[in-house]
Amino acid sequence: MTLLVSLSDVTKTYGDVTAVAGVGLDLHAGESLALVGHNGAGKTTLVKLILGLIAPTTGKVSVLGRDPATAGAAELRRALGFLPENVAFHGAMSGRELLAFFARLKRCPRQDLQDLLARVGLADAGDRRVSTYSKGMRQRLGLAQALIGAPDLLLFDEPTSGLDPASRSHFYDTIDSLRRGGATIVISTHALAEIEGHADRIAVMHGGHLIALGPVGELRAAAGLPLRLRFTVVPCSTGRLLERFGDAVEVFERSDRMLEVGCRPEAKAALLRGLGELWDLIEDVTLETPGLPAIYSKLIEREDTP
């Protein structure tokens, strides 16, 4: 696989403040990476380092085989697409005029602008002034701007901040379409529940440190969180289930007709098979797999525990 981005032991300080500390990270072509963490975790600093807007205090950043912070990196940036958290466009320009302006800056042909407007759902608003656009429409226009020239690498910094649910859904539909098309994407976000399922790997940032990196499944295993099984049973039968489970489960909640337990992921199949003749006592069973918010909380808790 082609290596597009490489950060080697990168640290960025501002006086006595360390924004990023010793981060090592590689990103390959066609991969989608989510940078997650609370505000101040170092996500935006990493995005700025990749863009070359700032240079590392120590360590090395390489993007498409070049240092993005050098004086000759303007040509490199034409191969990148960037959507900041808060887009600010001239309200007197139309959406089409604004895209044409950015296309000139990137030295890209302008004949594909209508296709870009259609791709982000603004085909019928391209000739309207940007001042008449809603927050979601301006963000979609920003996404179209980032896509000009079919860049090798796309970077999105808190792209759904302040958007309504419909606009958020539209954004992720577009991201998924780009992923299917082989785009290489970095998304910085603290919206943990949203990003799960829209990235190949998750990079967890905390206090400027990269504390975990991998697919959600690997992070779930690293966090050691149990699966939750919730049984609805005939009255007064939860005790019989617990006898059969033995020490394989942890009881979270129990009542006359309901039993919620946790078990290790690898023990799930054996636990269910072991119920045997007790299935006639069970009216319903649901399985809850820990999602990214729970995984993140556990990893942060572990990091903060002395």
Topology readout:
Blueprint: E1 3-14, E2 17-28, E3 32-36, H1 43-51, E4 58-63, H2 74-77, E5 80-83, H3 95-105, H4 113-119, H5 135-147, E6 153-157, H6 165-180, E7 185-189, H7 192-195, E8 201-206, E9 209-214, H8 216-223, E10 227-233, H9 238-245, E11 250-254, E12 258-263, H10 268-273, E13 282-288, H11 292-304
Parallel strand pairs: 3-7, 3-8, 5-6, 6-7
Antiparallel strand pairs: 1-2, 1-4, 8-9, 10-12, 10-13, 11-12
Structure in words:
This protein is of the alpha/beta class and 306 residues long. It has 2 domains: 3-221, P-loop containing nucleotide triphosphate hydrolases (Rossmann fold); 226-289, Alpha-Beta Plaits (2-Layer Sandwich). 32% of the residues lie in helices and 28% in strands. It contains 11 helices and 13 strands. It has helices spanning 43-51, 74-77, 95-105, 113-119, 135-147, 165-180, 192-195, 216-223, 238-245, 268-273, 292-304; strands at 3-14, 17-28, 32-36, 58-63, 80-83, 153-157, 185-189, 201-206, 209-214, 227-233, 250-254, 258-263, 282-288. Strands 5-6-7-3-8-9 form a 6-stranded mixed sheet, with helices on both faces. A 4-stranded antiparallel sheet has the order 11-12-10-13, with no helix packed on it. β8 and β9 form a beta hairpin. The longest helix is centred in the middle third of the chain and has 16 residues, at 165-180. It is globular, with a radius of gyration of 24 Å. The protein starts with a strand and ends with a helix. The mean pLDDT is 91.
